[in-house]
Design goal:
heterodimer, A: mainly beta, 6-stranded mixed β-sheet, 4-stranded antiparallel β-sheet, 53% strand, B: mainly beta, 7-stranded mixed β-sheet, 11 strands
């Protein structure tokens, strides 16, 4: 069975602080895909990144970076120099290597960035 | 950027009533999905749909639920006899190709309230 655990329910930081959101996953598959989605207060789900299980290179996109560690089954997300607009719920998700199959979401981490 | 469009944004219904949630996926997309999010909880997969057939469904998607692509552009989710516990945000999503696990584009959701 597949499972995603986001142990941090809520995180509060002050603007310009760096913050890391943790994601630990479980799967028996050798090929799988990991995602991060952002859900701002307006409610929509915004895609941030997709990573396949064979690509362990860390990725940086502006202030966002992702650290994929297959050895510890983790796919952590770091926001550098956080801003108020980063305040949202962030979901980590996992899916199998099969077209049309379900995304399994974690429970999400609510990030609050204050000025 | 193309969008997945969902209507209505809010739907209020009485327990036991039928409700139809509507979605217009991105026009060249081939896979369609419904997910739901009960308030404050994680996003849960309901069903995926490809080539006019259900591709995969979760245990949540029981006989009270059905999906349809009636006219080649709309994708609908019907709940036959709503229950209080069906109250949730329902997200439609689509993906472009049959390649595994392409990025899902989510709509803004329909907030369903069952009274």
């Amino acid at each position: 069975a597949q499972k995603v655990t986001q142990a941090q329910t809520e995180i509060s930081v002050v603007e310009k602080e760096d913050v890391t959101l943790d994601c630990v996953y479980e799967t028996r598959d050798t090929t799988y895909y990991l995602f991060w989605y952002k859900q701002p207060p307006s409610g929509e789900l915004v895609f941030l990144i997709r990573r396949n299980s064979f690509d362990e290179q860390n990725e940086i996109s502006g202030r966002y970076s992702w650290n994929f560690q297959k050895s510890t089954s983790s796919f952590n997300f770091t926001i550098t120099a956080s801003q108020v607009v980063d305040s949202a719920v962030y979901f980590c998700a996992l899916t199998r290597n099969q077209a049309g199959t379900a995304l399994i979401f974690g429970k999400g981490t609510t990030l609050s960035v204050s000025s | 950027e193309p969008e997945v469009t969902q209507t209505p944004s809010h739907q209020v219904t009485q327990m036991g009533q039928e409700v139809i949630l509507r979605c217009v996926p991105i026009s060249n997309h081939l896979y369609f999905y419904w997910y739901r999010q009960i308030l404050g909880q994680k996003v849960e997969f309901l069903v995926s749909f490809y080539n006019n057939e259900i591709s995969e469904k979760s245990e949540i998607f029981d006989d009270q639920f059905s999906v349809e692509r009636p006219d080649g552009s709309n994708f609908t989710l019907k709940i036959r006899s709503t229950k209080l516990e069906d109250s949730a945000m329902y997200f439609c999503a689509s993906s472009e190709t049959v390649r595994n696990n392409e990025k899902l584009f989510f709509g803004s959701g329909t907030q369903l309230s069952v009274l």
